[in-house]
């Protein structure tokens, strides 16, 4: 186990720079999720840590060692690939033991380690099978088994669940998380799915366009997003963003007047973006008036899409509601303290 | 009439005839035989659809029957006759009594093992080495080019390479020109003994390793696979063992033989070696074929399995032999068997270069000799039957593998 330290890391392909100077500290034993839209550089970052992509400039350290120029096999890492990358011509046992065999380990020792890993993952009955005879979830487990037999300092996961169906994904999410709690190995996990990030991470790194937007614990990111990108990326349904102007301690947006969070001082006349989570919007005598476009009951809660002056707001109600599409509704923040205020010019939080 | 015009008429009539056949026969089926109307419309449609494939197959089946199936039976019948009289297996026993036949058999077996092995190995090597370099495609084009040359053309080219002139004249053959550069000094030792010796030794080691790798699962027992896998392993091991034996004798020769420096050699009449000089021509041609197919197969190996192997600490050789080659094994088998079939039919090269003299005879040329020079239809047909018997199992195996590959 080891910490991973990244300093001023850059990556260019020819003249095209795709990673612009990243700094990141990953604490020993931490489960870190890199999340962002496709093309944000998260996979490139992971592959640079793995040694599959060359570093253009900057430093990557695993533990005490600077690993920039070490070949992947000497970095003491294990990686789980999106398509599992199992060797189709080897049995499950041979797949899991290959790295140990390459290391020149004793055959009995390899067998023992493979058996132990197979037990942890529930793969013991399948050890003599070939990958083609396994289901998606089992292949995923073999890929994880291949990583854990090596007992590496860092696990790297590259969107490992994106090929599984929804139900299996939720199940494997829990399994990976449990495995981490048991092994306590430093883990870097890449995904584009913010729910995966929220549920699994100790620490989330939100990336966009080759830069880190924000680093923090899941709820920290949810409660205090540093900018509009993080605010809209984290949380589902995503945060409502209303453009407005500060006037006399309130925000004027269109015809509506919205309260500022208590204790917040913003200069008069400043253009702002007023962010409200859908669950923080509620029925209220005064606020933003609009027409209900769609009502989506999910059972535990109801999503209501409201159309206001050509824009859409989403509100989430915990209680059963009697509203129907076409009804008029007035929405306002339930708790003004839960409102997020961003500078319209820069997108950063006040 | 102008020949060009004639050709045009033939094309129009030929293609038009084909189109007309398919169009009219389908029209007849749909409108007259089983029309899709009336009370039986549904039944008629499904009947028409059952017959339709046969309409498409009919011309091919007639052509194949006439030019392939009938000759097989006719040849079989001819092989049992002599001068119009039925003689049973007399032709065969006469043929088995001829030393030239057994020479052809022996040479054919040698060709059968050496040429596919050489072509596949060089093709695989070329495919792997040209994979990631910028001028790889140029190199591939050059290696593939001999495929475009006819066997006879290639033989003429190589005959020039092996050409021999009397001592006092300048040598126009490339091989002799090179050979005369050696005079027995240190350079000759390096280039004619040490370097080839090391190369042969390396190949020998590789072959012995292959034998071991093929037989290991058998010795260990356990899950050795089905009967065919087992048979394949044993045949593969025997082939590798045979090649290893050949190489071992070469190694002895390289180490011990006295070389007649300064004398031009008549390469094509050197017993034993001249067969190899002929095989070189076919390997030269077939390497391009093997390379193209194997190169495509190598490209198809999932990139992430290679990256996973890299992370697992495999070096480039281990990645090649333990990750890439096993994944393209089905393709290697198809390439190998396809070349094997070409080899069994080899005729033009031998005819054009030695015509079977100096112990280079092969079955196809032997058959040609009997049929068209000695005009012995009985024995010629008998040798043709032997060739067919040898080709058939390989052909079946090849088709089986190719179909498995397609699934």
Automatic annotation (TrEMBL), chain A:
One MF term in the entry's GO annotations: ATP hydrolysis activity
InterPro entries: AAA+_ATPase, ABC_transporter-like_ATP-bd, ABC_transporter-like_CS, ABC_transpr_MalK-like, ABC_transpr_MalK/UgpC-like, Mo/tungstate-bd_C_term_dom, NA-bd_OB-fold, OB_MalK-like
SUPFAM superfamilies attached to this UniProt entry: MOP-like, P-loop containing nucleoside triphosphate hydrolases
Keyword Transmembrane helix: no
Gene Ontology, cellular component aspect: ATP-binding cassette (ABC) transporter complex, substrate-binding subunit-containing
Residue intervals of the ABC transporter domain: 4-234
Gene3D superfamilies: 2.40.50.100, Nucleic acid-binding proteins (2.40.50.140), P-loop containing nucleotide triphosphate hydrolases (3.40.50.300)
CDD domains, A to Z: ABC_MalK_N (cd03301)
Alphabetized UniProt keyword annotations: ATP-binding, Nucleotide-binding, Transport
Keyword Ribonucleoprotein included in the entry's annotation: no
GO biological process: carbohydrate transport
Secretion signal, residue range per the UniProt entry: none
Family: Belongs to the ABC transporter superfamily.
The protein's name: sn-glycerol-3-phosphate ABC transporter ATP-binding protein UgpC
From TrEMBL, chain B:
Main location: membrane
Superkingdom of this protein's organism: Bacteria
Domain ABC transmembrane type-1: 105-398
Any one GO CC term of the record: plasma membrane
Membrane topology: Multi-pass membrane protein
SUPFAM superfamilies: MetI-like
GO biological process: transmembrane transport
Localization per Swiss-Prot or TrEMBL: Cell membrane
Transmembrane region(s): 6-29, 54-73, 109-130, 142-161, 190-215, 227-256, 276-298, 332-354, 374-400
PANTHER family in alphabetical order: BLL4140 PROTEIN, DIACETYLCHITOBIOSE UPTAKE SYSTEM PERMEASE PROTEIN DASB
Protein name: Sugar ABC transporter permease
Organism: Paragemmobacter kunshanensis
